[in-house]
Amino acid sequence: MIAIVDYGLGNIRAFGNIFNRLNIPYFYASSPSELLKATKIILPGVGAFDYAMEKLNSSGMRETLDDLVLKKKIPVIGICVGMQIMAKSSSEGVSDGLGWIDARVEKFNSTNNNMYPLPHMGWNTLIDLKESPLFLGLDQNPRFYFLHSYHYSYSVDCSIAHADYCNKFSCIVNVDNIYGIQCHPEKSHHNGVTLLKNFAELPDA
Q1: Catalytically annotated residues
Q2: pTM above 0.85, yes or no
Q3: How far apart are alpha carbons 39 and 123 in whole angstroms?
Q4: Segment 103-144, tens digit of pLDDT
């Protein structure tokens, strides 16, 4: 069953509403014992990198998440800041990230604030999509909703999709059972619903 990690960040109810419509079982996990029931994990997040890590570490679920993801290979998808904290660090703050992805999060280098205001907010097209079960049934040029000022660099080896704002950046990554998506599938209409359904249908560990 899908566990939506409830550590005080992210609109977790929006994910629940989508899974209700799809008749996909899920639950909200706010303790290590609840997490142990998960066969897949959604790690949401909004706001600042350091604050997200502080909230996750203080939730008591950090060690269990590491064990489920890194040792038991439970499929996990991080959304927005949930993706960013999977990296090793961020220029936004000083805290260490989870370190699940060999990457650093950087701020957009926008020299033209009139053309590229921050945050990057609104609809954008995914490009350079690699073959992935997450992408089955998406539109040919799928558009997703974004809201962020920090991002993974274009050169991250595990990128499976990019977007372009100021410059190309990595917006979806994948290493084994670990997925991260910078955009918001819960706000991205049918493409977002399709991506979440595809994640739910990945084989269990």
Answers
A1: 80, 184, 186
A2: yes
A3: 31
A4: 999 999 876 667 889 999 999 999 999 999 999 999 999 999
